[in-house]
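FW: tagging you since you asked about this chain on Friday. Here's the raw sequence from the shared folder, copied in full. Didn't touch anything.
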Amino acid sequence: MTENDVINRIDIFRLQCGKTKAEMSREIGTDAGTFGNILNGKRGISSLLLITFLETYPQISAEWLLRGNPPMFIPSNPDENCTPPLLNKKKVSEKTLQRLINQLEKQELRLMNLISLIETTFKK
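HL: got it, structure written out here
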């Protein structure tokens, strides 16, 4: 897990919800500029902000947020702050979808590299 991976997953969730950076920053109680700088990689994320994020969005799996292990949503926890766009029929722009696709492709590449490394290690 790297800090950038966690920040990318926060941004994936934000885009999945169709929220702006300003909306999400208000919901988690942080300054919009600070939150934008975190998402843009200009500033690190504090453990307090991670805890606040998980408390604000209890439907998000901490395992997914911190380690990338699916699923993103906790199945037994009802939605309180965000329903995925496909479930609430909220329109998502093509730009947002493309950004999500790009982030997922990066994650897929990382996973493929990790799988290759594991396979190489265990073949020895």
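FW: Confidence is low (pLDDT under 50) at residues 84-89.
HL: agreed, and Helices lie at 3-17, 21-28, 32-39, 47-56, 62-67, 85-88, 94-123.
FW: great, closing this out.
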